[in-house]
Amino acid sequence: MNNRRSLLTLLAGATAAFAGYRLFRGDNVMADTAEKTFEVVKSDAEWRRQLDPMQYNVLRNHGTERPGSSALNKEKRKGTFVCAGCDTPLFSSETKYESGTGWPSFYKPLPNAIGTKEDNTFFMRRTEVHCRRCGGHLGHVFDDGPAPTNLRYCMNGVAMKFVPEVDKPA
Q: Of the CATH numbers 3.30.420.40, 3.40.50.300, 2.170.150.20, 3.40.1400.10, which one belongs to the domain with range 28-164?
């Protein structure tokens, strides 16, 4: 019994170590894909110069910011949420809502703004959302959102910037 428990503990530890290494290693896990698929292509050094460390970790290494840590959670003005990597417009403020998850959430992206792919990391099946121009990881989409789409685009705030709508003079 102790041998079985030791083996299971060892396997769990090795799996966690591998997942941690893959998630937090310093190289760019998107480099090969970005160079073949996306319009905006930069070297790893260029991304590191452009992005702060947290943006780099999320956008280029598929990281996740802490829930509740983004100032964009409280953003209520009219405007557009754009990719922090390439300024592509992603979401209108009109589709933002409070999901209670701790991340900015939207029920619909702007047309031709995002791409998706299946994400099976950490023993889960999810749908990853990325910027269609630079491939930057934005977050995930789930089917528990509000009408009219019933989708919840749960985005990392650090992966986006907010551009307020300019008030037009009367």
A: 2.170.150.20
